[in-house]
Design goal:
- This protein is of the alpha/beta class and 399 residues long.
- It folds into two domains: 264 residues, Crotonobetainyl-coa:carnitine coa-transferase, domain 1 (Rossmann fold), CATH 3.40.50; 90 residues, formyl-coa transferase, domain 3 (2-Layer Sandwich), CATH 3.30.1540.
- Helix content is 38%, strand content 15%.
- It has 17 helices and 13 strands.
- α1 packs across α7 and α7 crosses α8.
Length: 399
């Protein structure tokens, strides 16, 4: 699938990414969605996320759209040489391997920048340079050591967040750094190295809780056990065991909440006179609300809160969002064709980058690539003949 051309901000920019899993591919995906030509360098057997099961089944098609693929065996000297030639044609190189890995192949920033001082190099790591930098990091590792799992789970039961938050955001911060470096390069003519890291990203996410302690002297409780800032801000179990989130985060919303639910008899009680008092008496207030809401359906409450403009949210699973009317109407879901696996060639829907430019979302211009889809074209651009390309493929130096 190739979509009609529309001008995009990074057109003409070449990105070569040596990435795998989620963090590095997310960095490349952001730049690709913004219009850059992104070349994914894979092992000759392919990125292993092409064939992951379970929670990893969506990794490759989600984070590798709008890219082309070349398979290169970096362990072979001629493969490493091809990779260096390709990297030197790039405006941006991105990688997310362990420290010192890229230097073994002459693909680190120090080596490449000697030949191309305009190069911008994005390293997506587990930890920024320091005492932890040589540790092996995963999203779950940094969530556990970085306070996020503590805040997400109930007391004594740390729980990772329900998606790859640090991998995805870490990749996004890498892309933001690349965009800033591109602007600076336009002024100075020189590139630079950008480093983004899972652990530091996680610390940024929990920073509000760190500052809460610094300011109040009281450690933040895990979210399920926290003292809410709002009197009404919770998930309620209603008719037939359904659940719905309802909130009233201002005194004006509290007034509308009581009017909508026929709760005027408690609206003006002294203990509920303002939000802070409602917080102080929250257990009693929630008990009253739970009893009052028990006979109402989630659908009825959704329609009521929609009508009066109060915050609400039915509880939904991710798979249900594929049929979400808002996402379908706004074009936030786009079709892609799967490149691998038992369902290769089938079309499914994916989520787009969550912004618009000139009123439009950044669409899928190219499906996630088959392994080596761009190999012949890219090697031809590097000066290799058709015969040489055939030999390189036969010898499994490229795929």
């Amino acid at each position: 699938m190739t979509k009609p051309h529309r001008p995009l901000p990074l057109e003409g920019l070449r990105v070569v990414e040596f990435t795998h899993m989620v963090m590095g591919p997310t960095c490349g995906m952001v730049l690709a969605d913004l219009g850059a030509e992104v070349i994914k360098v894979e092992p000759v057997d392919g990125d292993r996320t092409r064939h992951l099961l379970g929670s990893g089944a969506g990794f490759f098609p989600m984070f590798n759209r709008n890219k082309t693929s070349i398979g290169i065996d970096l362990h072979q000297p001629q493969g490493a040489e091809i990779a260096r030639k390709l990297a030197l044609t790039a405006d941006v190189v991105a990688e997310n391997f362990k420290p010192a890995t890229m230097a073994k192949y002459g693909l680190d920033y120090a080596s490449l920048s000697q030949q191309n001082e305009r190069l911008i190099y994005v390293s997506c790591k587990g930890f920024l340079p320091g005492p932890y930098e040589h540790r092996t990091a995963l999203d779950e590792v940094v969530q556990m050591m970085g306070g996020l799992a503590y805040m997400t789970g109930r007391p004594g039961d740390p729980l990772r967040a329900g998606t790859s938050v640090n991998d995805i955001m870490g990749g996004m911060f890498g892309a933001i750094g690349a965009l800033g470096a591109l602007i600076q390069r336009g002024i100075t003519g020189k590139g630079q190295e950008i480093q983004s890291a899972l652990y530091e990203n996680n610390i940024f996410l929990v920073g509000q809780h760190m500052l809460q302690y610094a300011i109040t002297g009281k450690a933040a409780d895990p979210m399920p056990n926290r003292i809410s800032a709002w009197g009404v801000y919770d998930v309620f179990t209603v008719k037939d065991g359904e659940q719905i989130f309802l909130a009233a985060v201002s005194d004006a919303q509290w007034k509308a909440f009581c009017a909508a639910l026929d709760l005027q008899h408690i609206q003006h009680l002294p203990e509920y006179a303002d939000n802070n008092k409602r917080v102080e008496h929250r257990p009693r207030l929630l008990a009253t609300l739970c009893e009052h809401l028990a006979t109402r359906s989630a659908q009825e409450l959704s329609e009521l809160f929609e009508r009066v403009g109060l915050p609400y949210a039915p509880i939904r699973a991710p798979h249900e969002l594929l049929d979400d009317p808002h996402l379908l109407a706004t074009g936030a879901l786009a079709d892609i064709t799967l490149p691998d696996g038992e369902r290769a060639g089938e079309t499914i829907k994916t989520t787009l980058f969550p912004l618009t430019m000139n009123g439009e979302m950044l669409d899928v211009r190219h499906d996630p690539p088959a392994l080596g889809a761009g190999t012949a074209k890219l090697l031809t651009q590097l000066g290799y003949s058709a015969a040489e390309i055939d030999r390189l493929k036969r010898e499994r130096i490229v795929a």
